[in-house]
Please model this.
Amino acid sequence: RFRPFMEEQLPALLTERRGLVAHPGMENACPRGIDEPTLLLVGPEGGFIPWEVEQLLAAGCEGMHLGPRILRVETAVTALLSRLF
Model:
């Protein structure tokens, strides 16, 4: 499912919005207060595999982390939304 998304849908989604990938171990912290159209990508429980992260970054998404702890998906989404908006 990931490969078709990467090849068929992601390029179109990123033409008019910023792409942010939440993944543990990324260099940059999650930004605050964005005011532009943004696509948020959060991996499944256990996170994205390295190949998926590489593909997302190569497609133009920006990597960011939510702190030193690995969060459950529902917690990560809540944290992202409260920090970004």
The two ends are 29 Å apart (CA to CA). Helices lie at 2-13, 50-58, 73-84.
